[in-house]
Amino acid sequence: MEQTYFRKGFGLKAEVKPLIDAEYHSEIVHRVRARGYEDRFGDVTVRLAQEFGFCYGVDRAVDYAYETVHKFPDRTIYLVGEIIHNPHVNRRMTEMGIQFLYPDPDGEFDFAEVTDDDVVLLPAFGVTIDDFDRLKKIGCILVDTTCGSVLHVWKRVEGYARDGFTALIHGKYQHEESRATASQALKYPDGKYLIVRDMKEAMLVCDYIAKREGHMDAEAFKAHFAEKCSEGFDPDRDLEQVGVANQTTMLANESLAIGGQVRIAMIERFGEESIDEHYRSFGTICSATQERQDAVKEMMAEPPDMMIVIGGYNSSNTNHLAHMCREYTTTYHVEDAACIDTEAGTIRHKPELAADHPESIETDWIPEGPFSLGVTAGASTPNNKIGEAVIRILKIRGIEPELGAPTVVAE
Question: Full-prediction pTM beyond 0.85?
Answer without folding.
Answer: yes
